[in-house]
Amino acid sequence: MSGSAPEANGSCNGAGHAITDIEKYLSTDGRARQSGSLSKLIFKFTGIPDVVGFHGGLPTAEAFPFSGIKFSLVDGEQISLSSDQVKAAQQYNVKGDGYPPLQTWAEEAVQKLHAPPADHAVSITTGSNHALDIVLGLLLDRGDHVLTEEFTYPHMVDSITGPRGYQLWGVSYDNHGIIPEAMDQSLKQAAAEKRPLPKVLYTVPIGQNPASFCIPAQRRQEIYDVCSRHDLLIVEDDPYWAIQFPAHSDGELGVHRLGESFLSMDTDGRVVRLDSFAKMLAPGLRVGWLTAHPELTARFSYAMHGSCLGPNTFMQVVLHQMLMQWGWEGLDRHCKRIQGIYRRLADTFHETAQEELTGLAEWERPEAGMFVWLKFLAGVHDYDDLLNLMLEQKVTAAPGSICHVEGPQPDVGCPWARICFAAVTQDQVKTGVQRLAKVLRKYQAAQQTR
Amino acid sequence: MGSVTAIDYDQLFSASGRARGPDALAAMAHLSDTNNIQVRMHGGLPAAANFPFESFSYTLRNGQRSTVEEASKVSMAQQYNLTLTGHPDLRHWMRQHVLNQHRPPSQHDTYVSSGTNHALEVVTALMMERGDPILCEEFSYFYMLDSVITAAGYKVLPVAMDEYGMKPEHLSKILQQRSELGMNIPRLLYTVPVGQNPTGTTVPLERRRQLYKVAQEWNLIIIEDDAYYYLQYPNGADKLPGTHALGASYLSMDTDGRVVRMDSCSKLLAPGLRLGWVTAAPPLLEKMAMHTHASLNGPNGICQALLMELLDQWGEAGFEKYVLSMQAEYQRRAAILHAAVEKELTGLVEWRRPTAGMFMWLKLLAGVRDADEVLPQLAEDGVMASDGDMQLAAIRLTVILHNYPERHHNILKPQPGLLL
């Protein structure tokens, strides 16, 4: 893989703690994870001409039902798979890290967009949700700790860490992300008190779910340095990376001006970056890609393959063909188009909110992603106070408490709501904000008459 | 329909199984539905206006073609799964198909899976802890052994087989001995009852009834992994069974709700779709659906949409015709391999003519004690076979070749020194 050796970068930076032995970071499951023996055999002999392959359980391509596949794109492009591609699209994955042409594209994309300074390897994934579930399973045992913002991706809380028995450490954040001093202090204190330390920092650094902040480069470096000092791995879950629409920018950013990821500053090899096509293209495809230390990526591929035999080859083949036809120009154009769509929705929300919600709530105009993190004023103690009024006015939002690291707690009020402005139309955004305003005014009025 | 399950699944779930519940936003989605709310800003769904595809179409080998272009279908295909059980129309088809095909005698439900492998990971995680035992046929599906069982630290309890599958007496004996020794009784029994991987065995009805009875005595949950169910050809090319004579599944005799049946699109249609369907008693199925959704957000939408379009286009008659054509294809290849083995290897191996699926199990004679003695040389001669790392004088040949039929004859000629 490209990138200079970790040791060299370590000495370059002075403070670097390059990761040389990934084993010590792995969980029990992670250490046990090996490539399946039959997989090894299949992968080893894939592509060798003239081999009579009696060994695998690969059904014959001649029996596959589809002989032709075509996709029409909204931008007018036509994708038509070749006969070989149609066969490949219907066959099992023959490599653990995904359909080779797409994996090659992903490697190139990572190099072009992040130029990671340490050794790394890239695998196609079945989408970031599954990748996250697998990665955490490789790194953490039941009872282990994950450090994250005080409010985080709710799916993490209810669907991953809960059932797997991981402990979430919430750390303070502001509108630029986790506060490095708070994180550092928290870790130092735990070490001093000989309490178990987290092994991983989990963060969604762009358009954070739910607080919608974007971590700027300087803050990122500070966060990275704290992680390096305390030897945490960083799981950079970046589904909204391509959905950035900063208020002050010279045109849409496209795909080339998206800023510096944690991966791009990863001199130690401690970042596990999850990229996804879900928001960049569509979630129903169930395809993404992961970048990490080569040994960790290898374990990841084994685990993913063992879990579900890899991402559906069908969409991998279609996506690869589409990306080839688009080229980087086409992908850039597509990103600009969707950035424009999200920008308009975000602006509509923000402008309508300024008219309707000033004094009733606090929020920041989002610069990326799909969410607005709204704090209710008007004497609201918890989202639940408003639920009946919201149902009556026919508008919904996500209660902030489901995003809290400790989940909803009955005696702790959480006057926050996560508003998703993405899946509604421009008009519905306006209507939604107006209804929210009505809810809050009604609530306020009811309080005042008490 | 029959009674609700007699199994108390709450007693059988693992720690993570017990902790598995609906996601927090599900409640909000439900409220939105019941209150008829259109302006929904609670979920994390991206804008459909951004989705790249406008339509997609397929052509089949027989020339039939179709296009998915209706806006709501194209949108659904690209969006997250909005239910835990997959696309409603596809799930409905699968559920109905299972009811028609198997007529389960107690209440079961069905969800669209992301392939059987994942379903196996899910069901074992829901019901087992690291170190727990699981009963398997003594020769079993490699991925299950390697990537599910070994990786999670479960322990295999192999059950001896004869030509009809697992031996009920041996199954009873294992359980009886464990009970007497105070060892923990396994919860799960894993079986591939048709065209078994690797032995090619299909378990006949009477044997199934005996095994089901043992499962009842010891309260085992039976995982019926039926990847080759539709690919049966026991009576040769002239009497292919279609969908109407495929024999009785474990699900069809499941009075207790102890069978988890896994159907797969991989061998019937194509593995690249990563689709299948799972049927189980409602308390277990609900957990499996939640876990599947939690881990990988359910099956990919484009392939679900394509499959639904295909099934709609075919109708029942078309599906029947397709199943027959697949049975014919596999039967033809099996017959060629069988003839070649008969011609070249009689006296050197023992085998049975395949009646289902894609594997032929060769027992190596001629003084061979372990397949490792011959596999490397086979490989040198350009023939890949597998033995699954077992200490065994047997190899599994895959009936499906990519260059057939002539090459069969050449490669199966005994090479000098190979099988002596």
Please summarize what this structure is.
Chain A is of the alpha/beta class and 450 residues long.
Which superfamily, in CATH terms, is the homologous superfamily of the largest domain in chain B?
Type I PLP-dependent aspartate aminotransferase-like (Major domain)
Number of domains of chain B: 2
Sheet of most strands of chain B: 7 strands, mixed
Strand content of chain A: 15-25%
H/I helix tally of chain A: 13
**Spatial ordering of strands, largest sheet of chain B:** 4-12-11-10-9-5-6
- Compute the gyration radius of chain B: what is it? 23 Å
Shape of chain A: globular
- Helicity level of chain A: 40-55%
CATH architecture level-2 label of the largest domain in chain B: 3-Layer(aba) Sandwich
Largest interface: A-B, 112 and 105 residues
Rg of chain A, rounded, reads: 23 Å
Number of helices of chain B: 12
Distance between the termini of chain B: 59 Å
SS-based class of chain A: alpha/beta
Order of helices and strands of chain A: HHHEEEHHEHEHEEEHEHEEEHHEEHEEH
Structural class of chain B: alpha/beta
Question: How many runs of DSSP E, i.e. beta strands of chain B?
Answer: 16
Give, in order, the helices and strands of chain B.
HHEEEHHEHEHEEEHEHEEEHHEEHEEH
